[in-house]
Amino acid sequence: MNFISAPRSANLDAFFLSFCVVAMAEIFDKTWFVALVLALRHDKRPVFWGSFLSLSLHVVIAAAFGWYMSRMVSMKVLHFGVAVLYAAFAVIYAYDWATSEGCDIIATGKEEVDESLQEDAHVNEEAAMTPGVAYGTLKSSRLRPRRSPKFSDVFLVAFAAVFIAEWGDRTQIAMIGVHASQPLLPVMLGSTAAFGLLSLSAVVMSTFLADQSLSETRVKAIVALSFAVFTAIAVYEGITSSTPQPQGPPQIPSKPTQR
């Protein structure tokens, strides 16, 4: 794997492919809804930067794993392996589409994230109510006046929540496959651009999607079809990629015999 491939068109193709893969895998995913719900509750600026920088760190992690895999496996095998990975994602999203009941994906995602955030808040509240050093005292935040959270507080909450939600997600696995089979730097730029656009869309859409609905069936069908297209592209690249022929030991020229 090269950091930047020689042909300019190959770099653009890798950038566009990684952008589309990340965008299709991440849109209306749990990570996207985490940023959306946090933007509904807090200032949008720290939510955006915390979400974007957290996802950018995931790009670096995926690039490291992809680079290591590219050093261990030939490029042709990587292309076909990525094709199998994309095909598996297409089957998973197609199954989600077939079994979905046509419910509102926005309401469902918000409820799931709200429950997760409420559980974390309940744990923190119980920790705050633990007895203090002096007998009969309580370390309770209820006794203190409420104040709006600072930029750094919201930033750290968004960074941690998005990082945990993205760890081991389908998008992370797909990114590792793209980084392993495509030029490294264009894929990193494409993935980062997709994450930036998705973080921005979650923050902006928090203003407009509060009372909107969207069919889960339609979204899953589009994503499944997109990964089917990505599978065909990876298979084509695996077929057309040239496998370097092993070179034999260097030949030592024989010295001319003197008569």
Description:
The protein is mainly alpha-helical and 259 residues long. It has nine helices and no strands. The chain has helices at 8-26, 30-41, 44-72, 75-99, 105-128, 151-166, 170-181, 184-208, 216-240. Helix 1 runs antiparallel to helix 9 (216-240). The protein is globular and about 60 Å long. The protein starts with 7 loop residues before the first helix and ends in a 19-residue tail after the last helix.
Q: Which structural traits does this protein have?
A:
259 residues, mainly alpha, 9 helices, 0% strand, globular
Q: Rough shape? A: globular
Cα separation of the termini: 52 Å
Sheet-strand content, in percent, reads: under 5%
Number of E strands: 0
Short description:
By secondary structure, this protein is mostly helical. It is built from 9 helices and no strands. It has helices spanning 8-26, 30-41, 44-72, 75-99, 105-128, 151-166, 170-181, 184-208, 216-240.
Question: How is the secondary structure organized here?
Answer:
Elements: H1 8-26, H2 30-41, H3 44-72, H4 75-99, H5 105-128, H6 151-166, H7 170-181, H8 184-208, H9 216-240
Helix pairs in contact: 1-7, 1-8, 1-9, 2-3, 2-5, 2-6, 2-8, 3-6, 3-7, 3-8, 4-7, 4-9, 7-8
